[in-house]
Amino acid sequence: MAELQARIAEMANRVSSQIFRQFGWERRPHKDADWPCCTKAHKKKTHPSDVVFYYESPFPKDSGRVYLNTDLKSYAKATITKEAVENALISLAMATECANKSPDWQKLYQDTQLNSKVYGMLFIYNHDQEYDKDFKSLLLSITSSLIKVKAGFRLFIFGPEEIRYLLSIATDMAILRQESRLPDLEYCRFYLPDLVKLRVTHKELQSASAEMLKMPWQIIKYSPQEDKVDQPGYIVYYRGECSSSDELKFLLDYFFRFQLVGDKSTILIRAPFAVNEATSYFETAKEQYCQKYFGYKDIDSRLKKITLEKVICQQANFSTTELGMDPR
């Protein structure tokens, strides 16, 4: 039984690595480590770190490297409950508080020569692929007062549907690279314009932040790469259903407002959750947008540079037998 549980837990480890390496994240070599608690009020001897990811922050208030002390959960449908998630968040909040001041944690994971912050991440992978409830509603039902998060600390939560979306993106990026439709990671930047309440140090980043992965869309700006891609462009991953022309006109307006639509650049929208009629709705949205802004410089030719394609949603399928045979 213990061996089976270990194999199930390994699924979340593999899926998280598969996802986040496509977004430019790195991970520290130590995993599945327990380290001493340094806060008496926690009344714990140790805290766990399943894995620690890191990337360079795009936000001035973070100004440096962000480490994500990560709790990986691999749950069956029946075990994704309010109580389980609530307890995981309580534990993660305490671990994150200690990680920011623990010499033991720093020795294992942190480059103390760099300015950095430690946040927490809860990664809930549904290994039987049967979870069909509203995870957001489950989160809203949690008693937030039990989760002690100090000012300045953050906890990021990725639930089953978000993981399915991010896995679909990561897999699609790998496929596009194999097809020479997307250059290698070194030729790509994750694009994040200034938002109303979120200012960035640079708009083009080598890695996507956790905040970016929580947004409705993720924008990749790429440069030409010899023998792969001969023109610059953008790929926009969109988590919406593309179920109306009004929804898609909002997306078009975003592209023009932030001047993503240039003379040479193309924009390819990739939508894992799009309805079957999405491309038809998109053509209608472009026609209506063109009529509304008729006379705007090259509006028709610029809209032709924007296309939409549906992406096949991905599920990670593992055999516990095969995982047990893999080298450790």
List the SSEs and their pairings.
Layout: H1 2-20, E1 26-27, E2 33-36, E3 46-49, E4 51-56, E5 65-75, H2 82-99, H3 103-109, E6 116-126, H4 135-140, E7 155-158, H5 160-178, E8 188-191, E9 204-205, H6 210-213, E10 217-222, E11 233-238, H7 245-257, E12 266-271, H8 278-292, H9 299-303, E13 306-310, H10 320-325
Parallel strand pairs: 5-6, 6-7, 11-12, 12-13
Antiparallel strand pairs: 1-4, 2-3, 4-5, 8-9, 8-10, 10-11
Order of helices and strands: HEEEEEHHEHEHEEHEEHEHHEH
Percent helix: 25-40%
**What is the distance, rounded to the nearest whole angstrom, between the alpha carbons of the first and last residues?**
18 Å
Query: Please, how many helices?
Result: 10
Radius of gyration: 21 Å
Number of strands: 13
Instruction: List unreliable stretches of 5+ residues.
Output: 319-325
Tally of individual domains: 2
Shape: globular
For the biggest β-sheet, the strand order reads: 9-8-10-11-12-13
Average of the residue pLDDT scores: 88
Structural category: alpha/beta
Beta-strand portion reads: 15-25%
Give a quick account of the main beta sheet: strands, pairing sense, barrel closure: 6 strands, mixed
